[in-house]
Write a structure and sequence with these properties.
- The protein is an alpha/beta fold.
- It contains 11 helices and 14 strands.
- The strands form 4 sheets. The chain has a 7-stranded parallel β-sheet, sandwiched between helices.
- The chain is globular.
Length: about 350
């Protein structure tokens, strides 16, 4: 499976966790003619065959049609996780900005649109077996992230009906990690002042074991390969992306040399809610509620139709991320800048 020679690919949100991996893979692909990376802030990073443009998809002044003209595919990754205390602001970027991208892609005559959906778009589901892409995508309505991802699934349903000539692919990955994303994700979910060295095993003799805390993880580079393959194929629709095995307290405790200790869900949520209410923790208790309800995903379709499989197991992904957390790892873009705290 290869991308047509000389293809021009536009990537929104090109300087974030997923964007940096997608841009790097595409820039190394001999079949890709050029990559145009769109981001709010231009990076110092200059991969081969890549040009940059400072574009905010949330801005009504951004001429997205102009940015997309002549593109063979648009990969839409732009997303704002914060501020979690201002859901109207993330809605403007994530939902209204995404709809602006969809409409501009159609107006520019782009034949392929690949959208970054998420496991977070799924309705609550089982933790003891995996579900395929037919599982309902109504999200967890109390969490802005899930609400926005689910809304965009409905927006794409309408888009596909109105623009049957555009091939639409929806990627629904699990939680994505790599060493270089450690500092960014610490700032997004735990706060910029949380010391990375706290991830050292000797400082975590006990690990909270919360009922329902069983999720899936995936290396960002593995997710990026799925995006690359989707662009270069004729597939349509949704694809689950995750690595085995599922991550729970027992697995994390084994990685960290800690002992899992059962903690009631209400106690954990109360602590998170208090910290979030005091603006000490960026991640909201509503997102915590959603995580405990996310289904496990079956990735058979990606394996069969994209010839895709993860190159790293979930424990390997988590271990790499923890090392990056300890070291303040990052990359040469503004969202991914490294910083070691503590």
């Amino acid at each position: 499976m290869s991308i047509e020679a000389g293809s021009r690919i536009v990537v929104t949100g090109a300087t974030g966790n997923v964007g940096t991996s997608v841009v790097r893979l595409l820039s190394e692909d001999p079949q890709v003619g050029s990559v145009r990376g769109l981001a709010r802030r231009l990076p110092a990073w200059s991969p081969p065959k890549t040009e940059w443009a400072a574009v905010d998809v949330a801005s009504e002044q951004a001429d997205l049609v102009k940015e997309f003209l002549g593109a063979d595919a648009v990969i839409h990754l732009a997303w704002a996780f914060q501020p979690t205390h201002d859901p109207a602001r993330t809605w403007r970027t994530n939902v209204l900005g995404s709809i602006r991208v969809f409409d501009a892609a159609a107006s520019a005559g782009v034949p392929t649109l690949v959208h970054a959906s998420s496991v977070g778009a799924y309705s609550p589901g089982p933790k003891d077996h995996a579900v395929d892409e037919s599982w309902p995508t109504h999200g967890w309505p109390d969490a802005a992230y899930c609400r926005e991802k689910a809304y965009l699934e409905r927006a794409l349903d309408t888009f596909e009906r109105d623009h049957p000539g555009v091939r639409v692919v929806r990627m629904r990955p699990a939680f994505l990690f790599k060493r270089e994303s450690a500092s960014e994700q610490r700032r997004i979910f735990a706060g910029k002042f949380l010391p990375g060295p706290l991830a050292r095993p000797e400082l975590l003799p006990f690990l909270p074991d919360i009922p329902g805390l069983r999720v899936q993880a995936l290396h960002t580079d593995d997710a990026a390969r799925a995006y690359q393959r989707a662009v270069g194929s004729d597939v349509r629709g949704a694809f689950n992306l995750a690595a085995d095995p599922p991550v729970d307290a027992a697995l994390l405790a084994e990685l960290l040399g800690s002992r899992p200790v059962r903690l009631p869900r209400t106690a954990a949520r109360s602590a998170i809610a208090a910290a979030w209410g005091l603006h000490l923790l960026p991640a909201s208790p509503h997102l915590f509620d959603a995580v405990l309800r996310l289904p496990l995903m079956d990735c058979t379709r990606a394996r069969m139709e994209l010839d895709w499989h993860p190159t790293r197991t979930a424990p390997e992904v988590i271990e790499e991320f923890l090392h990056g957390l300890q070291q303040g790892a990052g990359a040469h873009t503004e969202p991914m800048r490294g910083r070691k705290v503590g």
